[in-house]
Write a structure and sequence with these properties.
Length: about 350
């Protein structure tokens, strides 16, 4: 292991997860030194091997739970962080409806612990993993950061809204913390090396892993939930962003915070492509790019599904000097290459 001694150290909670692992790669490429904290409750240790192959070296990691106060305190004592990217959270919408307390305890307590440790150890910069779920079904599209947040459809979504409020209120209380909450839209794809990618546990809850598992024969067929929405082909519309583009947005957010002369600040930024794609267009594009014909059926609408949502990303473009550059076709090709590797 040969981490560079003078590179700014960034704590990446949940750094073995889908978005976290890709962000670790982008951080190293940008000259930062990521330190992963992950208890592997929603990820696999094999991700560390994938990171080693991409980076040519190990990344420092601690197998700890972000709610374990003594473990986290020891990590802060052992390392000298200049910033934190906080991914660690439970994220299954359906499970959160069944087990709300599990989600509130894990997702909120871990954030509050970090916010307590940051001033104590002189760590000022925080990038928080939020979600476009805070917008619900907006009245007007595309959604901007000033679009009103609507009541969450699930405890998971509510933890994201509450977390944003906790950060805002902590900063307002004159704590020396500079924070950006990135409201993600729909991350897809995989690293082009196919060494890391999305590893859903059990039946995938997201569209693209379900598509790739169906194409690989792991799932017998794909169900499209509803084709009678008020959209061009009747299926739901989402803003799908390549996970590497999303990872690079975190690096830019960290840079923005570190360059700021403010003692304390808080803001929210949409991270997407600014384009909406229907479910059927995702399927059609996947078939075109891979040559694989998908077995899919049309089913009834799913309760709680938003009809359409996509981002206005002008704030991210201007404030972070960042824009999503990878196409939907590239995202789907990368996702399929990753699926073929792990199947």
């Amino acid at each position: 292991m040969n981490p560079t001694g003078n590179s700014p150290k960034i704590l990446v909670t949940g750094g073995a997860g889908f978005i976290g692992s890709h962000t670790v790669v982008s951080l190293v490429e940008a000259g930062f030194e990521p330190v992963i904290v992950d208890d592997f409750s929603n990820s696999e240790r094999s991700v560390l091997d994938g990171l080693r192959k991409i980076l040519g070296r190990d990344v420092t990691y601690y197998p700890a739970n972000c709610n374990d106060a003594s473990a986290m305190e020891a990590i802060f004592q052992n390392e000298s962080f200049t910033g934190i990217i906080h991914f660690a959270a439970y994220k299954a919408v359906g499970e959160s409806v069944q087990q709300p307390l599990k989600y509130y305890r894990n997702n909120l307590d871990s954030l509050m612990l970090l916010l307590e440790l940051m001033p104590k150890y002189g760590v000022q910069n925080l990038v928080f993993s939020s979600s476009c779920t805070v917008y619900g079904q907006p009245e007007h599209l595309p959604v901007t950061e000033s679009t009103p947040r609507l009541p969450a459809q699930s405890p998971y979504g509510n933890t994201k809204a509450i977390s944003e409020d906790i950060i805002r209120d902590t900063v307002t209380a004159n704590q020396p913390i500079k924070a950006l909450a990135l409201r993600y839209f729909n991350p897809v794809g995989a690293h082009p090396s196919a060494e890391i990618g999305e590893l859903p546990l059990g039946v995938p809850a997201n569209l693209v892993p379900f598509i790739t598992q169906t194409a690989a024969g792991i799932r017998p067929s794909l169900t499209v939930y509803g084709n009678d929405y008020n959209t061009p082909d009747g299926t739901c519309i989402r803003d799908y962003i390549h996970v590497v583009d999303l990872a690079e947005a975190h690096v830019q957010a960290l840079r923005k915070l570190s360059e700021s002369s403010a003692n304390a600040s808080y803001d929210v930024i949409n991270i997407g492509t600014g384009r909406g794609e229907t479910v059927l267009n995702i399927i059609k594009t996947f078939e075109q790019e891979t040559g694989v014909t998908l077995n899919y059926t049309i089913g009834p609408r799913r309760p709680g599904d938003v009809e359409q949502v996509y981002a206005d990303v002008s704030k991210a473009n201007q404030m972070l000097d960042w824009t999503a550059s990878r196409s939907l076709a590239e995202s789907l090709r990368d996702a399929w290459r990753w699926q073929q590797k792990i199947s």
